[in-house]
């Protein structure tokens, strides 16, 4: 069996197992699978609002997914997209709320730039730990996630807390500094376009520039890279910074377009989901966009199933986790086949 | 304000809370340490604990017995640990990806089935394990209550920490487990079955992580709520590093994490308006500094999270 054929067979098997598992879960929650799937697709394609919601939910996933993909290319295992997202969110809220005299559009640009830098610096800390001292970035990024989450908690209870309220959240950002909606009344916003531009930029960087080439070489073989005069440390640091910056942008966009203020828990784990998205996408920017939209569509569809039929929307987490586990486990399939052939 | 804090009563209550907060972290931390010393990094500890918590709740609810609940919790932990074991040992996959996928998968599974379990039923609360007072010792001022007026899980920990310390320091098997994590090729050459030892390490990881999760349900809360581990699995990872990969160190590190949490609760109880997050952040910063402090003499197992493939170069 040729490699390509085998890959297709594996993909089909994974898809089949996932569909069977999904149907089983729907039956277990006492719903009719046909009804459930109808509702699932009606939720996504049934009306403009739901359809646009897919792209709204995909936006932060694209940014963080791109971030993970860039980092994974050099072998820098950035699990810190969650924390970098929050650093972007925190700084963008500070910019949008802290400079009331400045025109809105300037504040938006400033928030994007500073949010990118903040996320980048957050990842840079881990990169320096790794490149200079050889400390595992996995652990450092996890620590930094929790520091960032607590920083947000601290901010919305102290210096950024809405003076008019008693809830731990910031004041509302004024209309002029918000990212414009594209198709009101849907929530689709300019952030999605920025995400697509970012994806194109990352693709160009990785495929068409010397830096992108060096990043890939470092990821494939650090020793070979060093022997050919490519600085491993430099490339890890650059890709980590870009990676964190992209995740930071997710936070900026979420604050300036969706939440319209800073509050806790707004990432809803998208920093961790991003790791899985990058994996499913094979660290390719186009794949990241496709996987993010697919993931968002599943969430939108599952929300409709939950509303209409009471099927818990946690079904999405189960199926996405399952798909990734199956991708990791596909060695079990091929190994058997090798044995049979022999 | 200060007089209110500097009292015996305050510190007694604080130490008690500290130990209670730390116990699940210690179980998970010891389990994680055992796996990491054998070279397997389990970021899915969060999922292991969550599975332990859910299975223990379901088991105790259906059987009406806390012991059966505990057993189910352990089995739930083992099941998740074994998924990670197969992926990272047999299939030599990226251990971080596997761990994160497991966390998402288990979060989904437990949330899904806890909804179904609770559907149409009234609010279910288990009667929890009761405390066992150890006469004499529990009257020690300040720490007596914290250490010797606890439940069976806490007492078992004391034994476990001593056993693990002796295991690593004094036994050939303990040395072999560390060799697997430090230099699997050398261990293999010396006749140690590397993969078998790693599977055993993941079994221990699942058991202890499962107990850590079950503790939250069976001792502290008496009920399962969605995502109830809320990051404790990740904190356990930090506790292992801060504890420099030793059982006693992990115990101490977990106490620091538990203490930060407890201190903030106690301070709020006496009315000190300090945001919880300021204290909650500290242990992570300490861990980062500890990592920097260990430069050059790192305690991290040499082959941590590097799959061992026999016969490859």
Automatic annotation (TrEMBL), chain A:
GO terms for molecular function: transmembrane transporter activity. The keyword Protease does not apply. One of its GO terms (cellular component) is plasma membrane. Its main location: membrane. It is a multi-pass membrane protein. It comes from the Bacteria. InterPro entries: ABC_transp_permease. The chain crosses the membrane at residues 12-31, 85-102, 109-129, 135-156, 188-206, 236-258, 270-297, 309-329. It is found in: Cell membrane. Pfam families: BPD_transp_2 (PF02653). Keywords: Cell membrane, Membrane, Transmembrane, Transmembrane helix. This is Nucleoside ABC transporter membrane protein.
UniProtKB/TrEMBL annotation, chain B:
Keywords: Cell membrane, Membrane, Transmembrane, Transmembrane helix. It is a multi-pass membrane protein. It comes from the Bacteria. The chain crosses the membrane at residues 6-28, 40-60, 66-87, 99-117, 152-169, 199-222, 234-257, 278-296. Its main location: membrane. One of its GO terms (molecular function) is transmembrane transporter activity. It is found in: Cell membrane. GO terms for cellular component: plasma membrane. Pfam families: BPD_transp_2. The keyword Metal-binding does not apply. This is Nucleoside ABC transporter membrane protein. The lineage of its organism: Bacteria, Bacillati, Bacillota, Clostridia, Lachnospirales.
